[in-house]
Amino acid sequence: MHSMLLTPDKDPMGAAIIDYLAHGKASKLRVFSSMFDEDEIPVNQLFRTFQEMPSLEQKALQLCTGKILDVGAGSGCHTLALQEMGKEVTAIDISPLSVEAMNKRGVKDARLQNFFDKSLTGPFDTILLLMNGSGIIGKLENLPAFFHRLKEVLARDGQLLLDSSDLSYLFEDEDGNLDIAPEDDYFGEIDFRMQYKSIKGDSFDWLYIDFNTLNLYARQAGFKAEKIEEGEHYDYYRYRRCRIYRKQLYFSHVKKIPGLPHHLSGLPYLCR
């Protein structure tokens, strides 16, 4: 996993966010993948209020306690909602333009920082990863390193709130069996690239993970996984990364327990 930061000339999402903040509208934020047709992210949905958020997101924000880290905060909609609740929250993003927008919107502690950069130190009581937050892990093989990183930044009784989507249904045959060869990559490993106007971002890996696989890796790392809540098939449409991923969203919550390395629990497929 990389600890890189974006530059403004490679920051299409940040450019779209800045445009929308300045003008109340934005052009298409285009999304490309080698696996699917071109899609777009509705930029206005990156500015949703708490009342406009799906129930999965609302539940996740309500569960946040103590000192909170909002990872991949984007325009800051989750951070701002947490601030309005009177909660202490730090927002980080690898997008310089997104951090600029968050500062302009009133986020009290917005930082240009990568979660995997060792200069980011805790402890945090809650780490929040929403909008298919498991994506930053990139590849299934990175999960052990991800859980190790959690141990470095979570407080003793801390928790991770995470959502993702189970994409296995895309590979089911007519009888409902998975049509995947053993040598194939994990079905939730997707590559993406974004473009906004003339600003083209680099390709990046994004991980969607089913709950059972997450639970397996969590246990191997000394965590316990609990599914908290599952969303409706189209519940996640307003903030999904790509239109194809409308089904089987879950929300997960990870919590440290004295005597155990950590505890991972979750929501209908909001997972905690």
Folded structure, characterized:
By secondary structure, this protein is α/β, with parallel strands linked by helices. The protein has one domain (52-187, 207-271): Rossmann fold (3-Layer(aba) Sandwich). It contains six helices and 14 strands. It has helices at 12-23, 55-63, 77-84, 96-105, 143-153, 211-220; strands at residues 29-32, 39-41, 67-71, 88-93, 110-112, 124-129, 154-165, 189-196, 199-200, 204-207, 227-229, 249-255, 263-267, 270-271. Strands 3, 4, 5, 6, 7, 11, 12, 13 and 14 form a nine-stranded mixed sheet that branches. Strands 1, 2, 8, 9 and 10 form a five-stranded antiparallel sheet that branches. The radius of gyration is 18 Å and the shape is globular.
Oligomer, anyone? single chain
CATH topology: Rossmann fold
Mean model confidence by pLDDT = 84
Shape: globular
Fraction of helical residues: 10-25%
Largest sheet: 9 strands, mixed
Quick structural summary:
The protein is α/β, with parallel strands linked by helices and 272 residues long. Helices cover 22% and strands 26% of the residues.
Key traits:
272 residues, 5-stranded antiparallel β-sheet, 22% helix, globular
How is this fold's topology laid out?
Blueprint: H1 12-23, E1 29-32, E2 39-41, H2 55-63, E3 67-71, H3 77-84, E4 88-93, H4 96-105, E5 110-112, E6 124-129, H5 143-153, E7 154-165, E8 189-196, E9 199-200, E10 204-207, H6 211-220, E11 227-229, E12 249-255, E13 263-267, E14 270-271
Parallel strand pairs: 3-4, 3-6, 4-5, 6-7
Antiparallel strand pairs: 1-2, 1-8, 7-12, 7-14, 8-9, 8-10, 11-14, 12-13
Helix pairs in contact: 1-4
